[in-house]
Every structure is written in structure tokens, then in C-alpha cells.
Design brief:
Elements: E1 4-6, E2 24-32, E3 35-39, H1 47-58, E4 63-69, E5 74-79, H2 85-104, H3 108-118, H4 120-133, H5 138-151, H6 155-187, H7 208-211, H8 213-216, H9 222-233, H10 235-249, H11 252-256, H12 270-284, E6 287-289, H13 292-299, E7 303-306, H14 317-323, E8 330-332, H15 336-348, E9 353-357, E10 371-374, E11 386-388, H16 395-430, H17 435-450
Parallel strand pairs: 7-8, 7-9, 9-10, 10-11
Antiparallel strand pairs: 1-2, 2-3, 3-5, 4-5, 6-11
């Protein structure tokens, strides 16, 4: 990264002592959305400059907080939160107007126009999906349902659905911002060592290449790979079923009740939030997990294999209990040839294996359905799926438990979001259901699922 020279505006000085412009060398150490770390060599020796810089930053409205680190000449600044009005203000106002429309006798055109204005982001997503992706998404179903409610004069139902969707999105963004803040602390650590921040908390260094891939790696998990085609494939049949139901029953209200069917509700927030939260929590305990797919495989491990017999000396009864794996499912190899033989044997048996090693072995990286765990020694840790920076087996039980808990939470959240949605759709299609009640149940269950 090249060093950039900054020329600030001249500071007004006394008439008898004009001051020339100051030249300040600075360098961006790293940045993430909302956070910026700048390295300024002058801070090493000029205390007065440091104080003036801090005062200037405090007067800058775009910066919410800043601090100067003593050991390193760098200034860290954070962007000020712009507030929740862009996401919550308009939907909340729309809901308030829709509720007050009847007692205040507001014209239908005004109330409907406000609801329609609040739904502009929804229509923008529909347009982008059709023009850029060339496919019909769940937003198309939501837009059709909203349009029917507005035509029927059910402004409260439409406004409530928009408001709950905005609340869910705001909570999701707040959680992601919290995770970004935690990740910033992890990224701030030096890659070569662990920094102890307290008596009980330590941070695992996170390789730079993996920092941007944690959230994207969620798409590669078996859960989402299996669920995403089902969710996307259900959209067009839902449209067809809704149209068929309208023809058979002659009731557009009951037919429109099918449109909010959303099997893939967890794809947008539930699973990504759960996974990134877990990866962050593990790193805070000194355990680096490469990505979401590795986390998923950890939750399914039923066999442990060690690359050296000397590992037997490290295994205690307490560790066996914490791992939750029977001793007969724990294997030891004596050399590289034994590793390959044991690997093939376990593969034929259909075992989901976690290999524990403290040295490199080319054959360990060859199989997709296994996990390679390194004790954080030597050069091989760069290729490992999991790194235990404590250099011992103590965190292994915690790692397995955390992975299993995350996978269970993802399935529970999926059930919380999907089952009420299916129930609302079924009741509305066969017997009819108040659109306000349907919007309240669907929106609330989606929010609850994300924060379960």
C-alpha cells in the first residue's frame, strides 16, 4: 500500500507569525464498512499534533468515535450511524396513517398512495430481479399480494406487512453491524500471534483471505444448497396454484392467501446471522474455523482420526466426554502410509471424519467430506480447516458443541419461520383469514426466527 500525502487547509495563525501548510504522511492500515484505521508516523513523536488531531476529529460530525493507540502510530475512526429513519421511518408512518384513516376519514387515494410510496423498495427489487436476473423471486409474490390488498382497500394489512419487513431488516442490519464490530477487533490482531485482551478472552488471528468470505461461504453449506432450489422452485407453482384456486373458488381473497408462501425465509437472514455469529464466537475463544461449510461438517463429525500415536498421551476421560464421540470411533495412525490406509477405510464405512494433526500431509486435503484440524503448529496450519491456537485438544469439545448448536439453531429457526407461514397460507386458502392477521403472523414469525 502506498503512502499518501495529505495537505490540510492552512490553520489561521496570528498576524505576526504566519504558519505554512502542514504536510502529514498517512497510510490506510485497513478498513471495513463504518471503520477506518489510519497509520500516521508523526503521532510517534508529536504529542501536540495528536491532541489537535483528536480535537478536530471530535468536531467532525461524520465520525462517531476515534482513538489513538499508543504502541502503534495509527488513528482509528468510525462512521456515525445515520439512524433508522430510512428503513423504519416511512413504513412506521404508513402504518400510523393506515390505522388513523378510518377515524379521520382520510381519502382512500391518499392512504393507498402513501402505502404504495412505502413499497417502492419492494418494487425496485422486483424490477431488478426481472431485468437483471431474469427470474421471478419471492418479492414478486409479495408485490402481487400487496397490490391486491390495496385494490381491496386493506391498507392496514399492506402497511403492517411493510412495517414488519422493515423492522426485521433493521434488526438484521443491527446484528450484522454488531458482528462487524466484533470482526474488526479480530482483524486488528496481528496475524502472527494471539493477543490476550483479558484474563479469560483471547482472539484467534483471522487470515486476511478469509475475512471477506465468511458471509459468502454460507451459500456453500448443504443446508442452503438443498433449500435454495426448493424455495426458488416453489415460486412459479405458487403463482399457478393461486390462479387455479381463484378460478375454482371464484374468490380472489382466498386465492391471494397463497401468495405469501415463503419456504426460503431463512435464506435472507436466519442462517447467515447464525453462522457468522458462531464463527466470530469461536475466534474469540482462540479457534479459527475457515468457513460456514467447515462449520457444518464439524457438526456432523462422528469419528476422530489422529495422524500420530503420540496424541494418545493428550487424551483424558474428561476430553472424551466433552467430545461426545465413543472411544471405538477414535483412531490413530503411525505414519503417512497408515494415514492414507485409514482414510480410505473410514471413507468406505461412510464415516464423517475429523483429522487432528500438527504437521502437513498432502492426502488430508484431498477429500471433501472430512475436516482437518490443526493444533496451530508449523506451516500446515495455513491449509487446515480448523486451527486450535491453544496448541492443545482442550477447545475441541467446545468447537464440536458450538457447531452442533449452530446447525440445530438453523433448523429450529427455519421451522419457526416456515411452519406458521404454511399454516397461515392453508387457513387463508381453505377457510379465509383476515389479511391483517396473516401479515402479523408471517412478519412476526420471520423476526422471531432471525433472533431465536
Amino acid at each position: 500500500m502506498t503512502t499518501t500525502t495529505l495537505t490540510p487547509a492552512p490553520v489561521q495563525a496570528a498576524e505576526n507569525s504566519p504558519a505554512p501548510p502542514e504536510w502529514v504522511d498517512w497510510q490506510v492500515a485497513h478498513q471495513i464498512p463504518g471503520r477506518l484505521r489510519i497509520r500516521i508516523p508523526r503521532l510517534n513523536w508529536d504529542d501536540e499534533f495528536a491532541r489537535r488531531l483528536q480535537r478536530s476529529l471530535l468536531r467532525t460530525t461524520a465520525i462517531s468515535e476515534s482513538r489513538i493507540r499508543e504502541p502503534d502510530p495509527s488513528e482509528k475512526v468510525g462512521a456515525r450511524n445515520q439512524g433508522t429513519w430510512p428503513t423504519l421511518g416511512m413504513p412506521a408512518l404508513t402504518l400510523a396513517v393506515a390505522i388513523a384513516a378510518a377515524p379521520l376519514e382520510l381519502p382512500f387515494s391518499i392512504v393507498g398512495g402513501i402505502v404504495l410510496a412505502a413499497s417502492i423498495p419492494l418494487w425496485q427489487r422486483v424490477g431488478e430481479a426481472l431485468t437483471q436476473q431474469g427470474q421471478v423471486t419471492i418479492d414478486c409474490l409479495d408485490a402481487l399480494w400487496l397490490s391486491y390488498q390495496l385494490l381491496q382497500g386493506n391498507n392496514i394489512a399492506g402497511a403492517l406487512a411493510l412495517n414488519l419487513a422493515a423492522v426485521g431488516e433493521s434488526l438484521r442490519q443491527s446484528k450484522l453491524q454488531q458482528l462487524e464490530d466484533e470482526l474488526y477487533l479480530l482483524f486488528e490482531q496481528e496475524d502472527a500471534e494471539i493477543h490476550w485482551l483479558s484474563d479469560r478472552q483471547r482472539f484467534a488471528p483471522v487470515p486476511e483471505a478469509a475475512r471477506e468470505g465468511w458471509l459468502d461461504s454460507v451459500e456453500k453449506t448443504e443446508l442452503l444448497q438443498n433449500l435454495k432450489p426448493v424455495a426458488q422452485g416453489a415460486i412459479l407453482p405458487t403463482l399457478f396454484l393461486s390462479g387455479t384456486w381463484a378460478i375454482l373458488t371464484g374468490d380472489l381473497g382466498r386465492a391471494s392467501a397463497l401468495l405469501p408462501l415463503d419456504i426460503g425465509v431463512s435464506l435472507r437472514g436466519v442462517t447467515p446471522l447464525a453462522v457468522v455469529s458462531t464463527l466470530t464466537a469461536a475466534a474469540r475463544q482462540g479457534v479459527y474455523i475457515r468457513n460456514a461449510r467447515v462449520l457444518e461438517k464439524l457438526a456432523q463429525v462422528d469419528t476422530l482420526a489422529f495422524t500420530r500415536e503420540s496424541f494418545q498421551d493428550l487424551i483424558t476421560p474428561e476430553l472424551l466426554v466433552s467430545w461426545g464421540i465413543p472411544y471405538q470411533c477414535i483412531h490413530f495412525a503411525t505414519d503417512a502410509a497408515a494415514v492414507e490406509c485409514l482414510q480410505e477405510q473410514l471413507r468406505r464405512q461412510g464415516k464423517r471424519v475429523a483429522w487432528i494433526t500438527d504437521s502437513g500431509s498432502d492426502c488430508l486435503a484431498a477429500w471433501e467430506d472430512q475436516v482437518v484440524i490443526s493444533l496451530g503448529r508449523g506451516d500446515f496450519e495455513a491449509a487446515a480447516d480448523v486451527i486450535l491456537h491453544s496448541h492443545d485438544l482442550q477447545p475441541l469439545g467446545y468447537t464440536f458443541a458450538l457447531a452442533q448448536h449452530t446447525l440445530a439453531t438453523a433448523y429450529e429457526s427455519l421451522a419457526i419461520a416456515t411452519l406458521p407461514n404454511l399454516l397461515v397460507v392453508a387457513v387463508g386458502a381453505f377457510w379465509g383469514l383476515n389479511p391483517v392477521a396473516a401479515a402479523a403472523i408471517n412478519g412476526s414469525s420471520a423476526i422471531l426466527a432471525e433472533h431465536w
